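Hey,
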Amino acid sequence: MQSFNLLRSLCLLPILLFCVLALAQAEENSVTEERTLVLGGDHNYPPYEYLDQFGFPAGYNVELSKAIARVMGMEISIRLDDWGQVRRALEEGEIDLLMGMAHTEERLSEVDFSSPHAKVHQSIWVRKGNQAIRSKADLVAKEVVVMKESVMHDYMLEHEIVANLFLVTTLTDALTLLASGQHDCALVAKL
C-alpha cells in the first residue's frame, strides 16, 4: 500500500491538561481528601496506547502518564477503550483526561490541550497501483474507510467532503479492509 500525507501538522498529545490539572489537584488535596484522576485512551493505538497480552494498559502515553503521576505524587487510573467510548466518557465527566488526542482547531472548542510530545502525520492510504486518489480532492464520491470518531473522521465531516464513509473501530481494521480489496482508500495515521 502507498500513503500520501494529508495533514502534516497534527500533534499527538500525551494528556489533555495533565500538568495543569495535576497542579490544581495537588493544591486541592492539601485541603480535601485525595482523588484518583481517571485517564482515558485508545485500546488499540500502538505504540502509544494499547492493551497488552494480559489486558493491561501499555504504550508510550501510558508510561509517560504513570511517570508524571509518580513525580507529582498523584494517583491515576488508566482506562483504555474504543476511542469513541473514551471521547464520550470525557464529555460526560466519567474520565478526567484523554491521552493521545490529535490537536485541531475544531477540537479547541471542546477541550484544552497540553504541549505535544510527538507529531503524527495522517495519510490517505491506497492499494498499490491506484493512481486515482492522490489528494483530498480525489476523495469525493469514493469509498473511504476511517476510524469512527478519529481525527480523520472529524476532518471528513467538518470539511464536508462528500464521500461514502465506512467506519471501523481501529486503525488496523481500516488497513485490513483496504488490503483485502474493499473500498477505495483509508485515512490512517502513519505510525
